[in-house]
Specification:
This protein has helices at about 1-65, 75-80. The chain is built from 2 helices and no strands.
Length: about 80
């Protein structure tokens, strides 16, 4: 009976150590993935901001081309109209 208990204890210990290893590596992988995702989000956000600036600039240029005698921007003209 004592041998059986020792074997069960050894098996349990082995399982616990294996689970600890798995948890440790899962956390480590998640932390790395989280950093990568946050970096990608920052890059995407910067890219979107740059695209937004470019689009606003293009809108402004089109407004100048289409109505050179008008002063003000499209947004101001919309409010007046």
């Amino acid at each position: 009976e004592r041998e059986t208990h020792q074997k069960l204890l050894a098996d349990s210990h082995g399982l616990v150590m294996d689970l600890r290893w798995q948890i440790h590596h899962s956390e480590k992988n998640w932390n790395r993935e989280k950093v990568e995702l946050l970096d990608r989000l920052d890059r995407d956000r910067q890219e979107w901001e740059q695209q937004k600036k470019e689009l606003l600039w293009r809108i402004e240029q089109l407004q100048k081309e289409n109505s050179p005698r008008r002063s003000g921007s499209f947004l101001c003209d919309q409010k007046e109209g």
